[in-house]
Amino acid sequence: MSDQNQVRQRQIGYTESEIPIQEEFDDRKKEAIFKKRESNPDVVSRIILAVLTLLSFVTRFYSIEYPAQVVYVAIFISFNWSTSFDEVHFGKFASYYLKRMYFFDVHPPLAKMMFAGMGYLLGYDGHFEFDNIGDDYISNNIPYVGLRALPATLGALFVPLMYMIMIESGYPIITAIFAAALVLFDNALICQTQLILLDSMLIFFMLCTFYSYVRFYKLRLREFSNEWWIWLVTSGVSLGLTISVKMVGLFTVMTIGVAVLIDLWNLLDIKRGLTMTQFRKHFAARAIGLIVVPISVYLFFFYIHFIILNTSGPGDAFMSPAFQETLRGNVMNLQSFEIRYNDTITLKHKDTSVFLHSHVEHYPLRYEDGRISSQGQQVTGYPHEDDNNQWRIKPAENFFNTSRPENDTIKHGDFILLEHIKTNSHLLTHDVASPLMPTNQEFTTFPADDKSRYNETVFQVYIHDGDSNTVWKTKSSFVRIIHYDTKVALWTHDAALPEWGFKQQEVNGNKNNIEKSNFWFANEIIGKNVTEPSEQKEPRKIPFLLKYFELQRLMISHNSGLTKPHPYSSGPINWPFLIRGISFWTNNDDREQIYLLGNPFNWWLTVASMAVLVGVLLADVISRRRGIKPISDPVRNRLYNSGCFFFLAWLFHYIPFYLMGRSLFLHHYLPALVCSYMVASVVFNFMFINSVNYPISISGAGAVVDYISFIVAITIICISFGVYLYLSPLTYGTPGLDPSGIYNRRWLDTWDLHFQPKKGEI
């Protein structure tokens, strides 16, 4: 196809992406379509694009400086860590980047790096850690407006991106304006992009991905040209940037992946005339551009993440000891000492943080359920420092080929005896049921000078991720201590013994010796004064991929564990209907509040539009089964190509949330919402324009259609603007509303707004 024809196609809004694959137009029909368009819409389109962009910046930057304090809404879970959708969370992370302190978060690093980069450019040094709700930004000298300007700028670019996606997809200017206006006047998108939050980056890169892929798809008749390769790689880079902001960027990957598979399936059709060699080239190009490139981008930002965060910080505790040793100033690096035979140590359980403990008291003859014990010396878990926590490590000499030197280091796989210092007895386990768990073995001790039960006192040390040369160290080595005779693991759990056990924690032998809850670590070597200056240790170096995969496992694990309920959580079924929002911030003095709430007119319109699209497609399929063609092939082709692509994007960004067990919130729906606006625009186009030829003027051919589409579009946009304006006090947080004003804006009873009027106030 010539460049001249491509230009002429763009002039009438009928692009390569919409030319039917299996029903080609002959040249005469093409010329007839091209000649219907004499004026060039490029100048008009650019003016409209500029106006829309300007309006978008106005709506996103209006009152961006208010409130001048930390906006905070969070959900707290275990491990003294929280996931949230607030400035406390992500502002704090930007500060940690600037101070190079290691932290842990369930999201990939790109967006937080962008905030840190903006802070660096603004001269911010990370001194403020966003700790408290309502902390004042101005008095703490925080360039918060500049930090908020980053997501606001990207949020403002949603509008021109939406416009360009619709134009490049072959739709007329009025349809592109319609789509852009829905995004322009959506209160939820404005509210979410005015604060130090991640969603603006996520949606921006998602839209960049869609735009780049549409541009790439349009060039399929100029395969392997320079422009074709540029837009393919750009699509891949945009995909990588999307998933580098949030893991839900994988939904965008799924969307593009399905589109690519359909494209490859069409290329495989023998009617296309491609040889298998040519098809393999197409497959390889897409694999490089849309798999290798995104993965490389994703890995690159984690590589930078690890380079920047090289100092001990609040995220250390989430990582393995080996990982922690790579951080400067970490306790694993400063206080990690090799353990040698005949050292006296304290052992601490990793999960419950109790010490392995014993004392002179014995188990009772009978337990409450009538079972009989060994009446041996009690072995328990004790949470406090005590002399009864001290154990000497001795070599099990009978289990080594040669005797071990007194100061030899203990390594992975070594056989040891654990001697309780205070009672001069060896740790022992045997085939007797434990006090609280009849399925597990009892732990006790046996006199150290009595060799009659020697084998029952022998244990083997297994260092996590260790090999035969790995030395056991304090703090930094997680170990499983496995009994030689019965193969059970030394284990404890947070169940307290009765009064006879002083309410201390039960210790027993776990028959499933590979469980992660079997890990212990040596807390200290008794007599080793770790407060004295020791030789400076260089941080440990481990391969990037090992660090990357460890962090990925933790991110996925903790993300799925965010199940604690929250007052503003909501289920996916509620989101499209805008059943409830999220309270972001309140000011009791002036009755001001920021409440995340979408434009209900827009949201409900998209629900109706998607229902119409599904209904039209089903009716078309059924009609064609009966030999009836209710929709012309060119119009039908556009409806199926772009309409189904946008609907698929909405589906992939929405349905997966039904499979998640974690707490969910309205803001999770925003990427799907943007996709639904594209669907609504396609349906508008089908219902009120429904033609291949799209004249831009309101005269000549298609004038009636143009008048109708223009009036409908303007009417809908005006209503959308009116609703946006009416709800804007809740979006921007100022000015404050009186009780009647709040009451009038509470369209649904489930909108739990603050400062509801009391009886008699209305």
Automatic annotation (TrEMBL):
One of its GO terms (cellular component) is endoplasmic reticulum membrane. It comes from Glomus cerebriforme. Keywords: Endoplasmic reticulum, Glycosyltransferase, Membrane, Repeat, Transferase, Transmembrane, Transmembrane helix. It is a multi-pass membrane protein. Belongs to the glycosyltransferase 39 family. One of its GO terms (molecular function) is dolichyl-phosphate-mannose-protein mannosyltransferase activity. Its EC number is 2.4.1.109. It holds the Pfam family PMT. This is Dolichyl-phosphate-mannose--protein mannosyltransferase. It comes from the Eukaryota. It catalyses: a di-trans,poly-cis-dolichyl beta-D-mannosyl phosphate + L-seryl-[protein] = 3-O-(alpha-D-mannosyl)-L-seryl-[protein] + a di-trans,poly-cis-dolichyl phosphate + H(+); a di-trans,poly-cis-dolichyl beta-D-mannosyl phosphate + L-threonyl-[protein] = 3-O-(alpha-D-mannosyl)-L-threonyl-[protein] + a di-trans,poly-cis-dolichyl phosphate + H(+). It is found in: Endoplasmic reticulum membrane. Residues 336-396, 407-477, 469-525 form the MIR domain. Transfers mannose from Dol-P-mannose to Ser or Thr residues on proteins. It is an enzyme of class 2 (transferase). The chain crosses the membrane at residues 43-64, 102-122, 142-163, 170-190, 196-216, 251-268, 288-309, 601-619, 639-657, 669-692, 704-727. Pathway: Protein modification; protein glycosylation.
